[in-house]
Amino acid sequence: MSILDNFDSWKGFLGDRLEHAEGQGYDQKAISEIAFQIGGYLAEEVEGKNEEERILAELWKVADEKEQHAIANMMVKLVKQGGNDHK
Hints:
The protein is mostly helical. The chain is built from four helices and no strands. It has one domain (3-81): Cytochrome Bc1 Complex, Chain D, domain 2. The two termini are 17 Å apart.
């Protein structure tokens, strides 16, 4: 099963990457920029495999750059608030 087949697995994957980035000393601005770049890549290059991913991709595509940064920041926040539920 691909990481993109299940939204909870996807959030877990993002959470692990976030923990790794924080452990490497990345600040919140750098983490937000990485999330923004990943969001753009996913929206343009990866077809959503579930309803949540398709909705996020559609929202990303209609958003301007400021709104895309907000979406990326919300995904980081969602993952952070999810704690270690994915482990």
